[in-house]
Queue: 2 jobs
Job 1
Amino acid sequence: MSRLTTKAYRASEVLGVFRAAHSQALVYLFLTFLLTALGCATVAPYERETLARSDMQFEGAPEIAEGETHATEVREGSAGGFGGTGGGCGCN
Amino acid sequence: MASPRSFAISNSRGSWHAIAIGALLWLAFPATNAVADEVSTGVFYRQDSDTTLVVSPRVAAAKYLQDKMTRVDVAYTADIWTSASIDIRTAATAAVTEQRNQVTGAVSHEFARTTVAANYYFSNENDYVANGAGLSLVQRLAGGNATLEERLNFGFDRVGRSGDPTFSRDLRTLGGRLAYTQNINSTTVLQGAYELIYREGYQASPYRFVGLGGDGLCGGSAVLCVPEVHPDTRMRHAMVLDGRHSVSEDSSLGVGYRFYIDDWGVLSHTGIVQFAVVFGEESSFTFRYRFYTQGQASFYQPVYGVPGPTGFDFVSRDRELSSLFSNRGALAYDTLFELGESGTTLRAAIAAGLTVFTYNNFVGLDNVYSGDLTFALTLEL
């Protein structure tokens, strides 16, 4: 194996370790959020008026969100997390 | 070498299809009111600098049963697109117009502390048929301060190739989503979600070909031109952290982040910031910015050399597997009208967005600029 190939191999190995560590750190961060958030706060029903406002909801209105989300998903290599938008190729 | 898309029809005919379907939906809109509690109609329009136009009319209706504890939804969406994109130009094919039709049905029932829902969709275009179903359970916890959502999705797709009745490949999807939402205080809510998607079957495009050697383009100086080959399985993971904070009595700030990774080597980050202003109970205005960046799949190369004795396991000319990033800004406005004293309301919404895609290593395409417009009406009886 030439010196250049060896260097390239080590660089890709280091990058691979970094990517794995990065992914693991995010998984731990996510799990920590779930565990610490569980039941950590109590908001009385009469205090939830603001939380019930339409702009505080995570799910957008489907009649507005569906077209844009489908158009975005078929143009990226990623999918999921924010909810799905039906099927079909639409791969224009 | 490229497979001809013999179904290609003229752009004007495709536009007439879109207009005719849109007109039918508008005519059906008032008639549906007789049997439904909520009806909506809308259209999504998108055009980009890669010569692709998409028009998607949509109509939906919802009915409540058993004192509003059960809700039934049905929706129809058409996706009419005309394109002479880089994929089509590279394949030396004329502009293509296609129509995808999708029907969706969903039913949900609310119990004291849980909501159970099921949905099904069927999507059909002349070279692609998709069936999918989902089951979900939402549990309200901690006195209504938290919700836990569990969802399972199944998909069964059949991929065809126009002009070649012998070509038929299956693609199966199994997915699961877990989302936890927590009220932090009276003005802040957080959500964490994890989604796993496993796909097995044909995941390349039957229309894309990869040039080996030369400039990498079939029809260019490539030595060989071969069909695109992707792995048969793909395991995808997406993790999302999302939050909403009310900054005043009538405005809120939302921040979201998604980390995505899969076993094809694609790793991406998505960031979303949105600011919304509410005018009374009737209207709201939202500005949304989205940033997306991804690395390329491990087997993707912008230019493949001439293969040695072992050849390549996989070759791709899919820009969605190349290294890219995008920026998107969007504005949305919606307002509510009360119709008479019967409690009937009409909600009108309009949204417009601009997106710029930048491809770091895709031969023949550096940027795509796209604009989209959505218009929707929802009548609640």
Job 2
Amino acid sequence: MTELDLFESIGNIDDDIIEKANQKKATTKKLIIMIGSIAACIAAVLSSVIIAQVIQSGSEFKTDNPFPESSVSEPSGNAQAVTPVSGTSSSEASDAGDSGAVSPVQSSAEAHLSAPEGSSAPETSENTEVTSGASEESTDSSEEEVSPAEGSEQMQSSEQTSFETSEEIAVEWMNFDIYKVVDGRLVSTQIYSEATSDKVFDAWKKENSIGDDVKLISVDITDNGTVEYSGFGGEEVAIYTMGDYSKLTVIVSKTLENYYGAIDKDLLLESLEKTMRGMSDVNEYELILSDAEPEESESNHVDPNDLQYNDQGEILE
Amino acid sequence: MTDGQLTELYWSRDEQALSVTAEMYGAYCYSIAFGILRDEEDSKESVNDTYMSAWNSIPPHRPAILKTFLGKITRRLSIDRLRKKNAQKRSGETADILEELSECISSSGDPSAESEKKLLDETINRFVKELRGIEQRVFVCRYWYAKPIREISQQFGFTESKVKAMLMRTRAKLKERLEKEELI
């Protein structure tokens, strides 16, 4: 085959694909009209919500908070906050092209927790301001967001509200490369999936014909970022600064070993590494096979009330 | 005039079909031919040959999308002209495109046999269908329409480096697919 043969063959693709490719992007005018309409709708919704809040509660409303309490239902037991995901991995992953969105992963340097299955953590900036302190309104120990110890209930639940809202719009779908072993070599298939480690792991299992006896126990990203605490408006605020090194630790059930005979062990593990590393740009990767059972609700979960810190703000093991 | 009406002119052997085709799709066909041949005279000849080829093909064909039907004829005729030009005479963008595609094959070997061409056509079609949204459109703009990278980046609002990176990834996937199908 020559490159001209290939070039010629490309000419025989379906007509609708050819036609679709040549369509130009929406004109600027159309875009402006569309964006303007959306902005107007959002403004109308927000205005009505704010007015309803003022009328209903009759309480003092903090003008700098666009998400009033009454607009959001009580956080559920598994309510999650969008957490600033730490490390070089997350910010670089968020800058990646088609793949690389950071799934709910947990950082030991973080005071906050990953989102549960079905959602993804938002992209983070390098210096992330986080509010620490015990939550007075936690309905469940699994609730991840911590609100200030001081401050009104309204502010507290507003923060919960804002994080719920943020969490809803933080769910991403991305293209991921799933690696599988075929005829003694690795090949990749691209899938379009929710940006969660569970979904990507399930896709990897399916491609490699791995059964449901193999489970993803946890995915953890650790890094050398630092946390500093300072006072701000009567509240203690943690400011996280990213480091320059990160490590991805994937813990999978030991039942994976049952597949070593049918599939070349080294290639299988390499396919898993390449697949999982495709989600986050990390410096190091480690796979641990464990007898532990994954948690039922979500694989990555730590109760913030269980975390303890030393004087430098580092999380104690 | 709609495509359906124009097709009817061909079917009724009304020579007005040719002038209407030139008016409606002349520029489109010329842009495809020029994208490949990069020569004004050769491109014009390809477009004229396209009209004759369409006249001889309709009937019996009744194309679903007349525009792409004509575009495919132009493309094929232009590539035939390109084959006749030796490698030194292929210049600029076309040479770049062919060089990019050469990454997808192990080595520039012999022209494909007829049976292999059919399999190659099917494989390429399946591959392109499986590409997602923008990736598919960028690939087709580059390797079907033979558009320059600059033009593609303006069309989609991307930087040129992003377009190049996207195409590089897609070519790598194409190569994998061709290897998997044992075509290379």
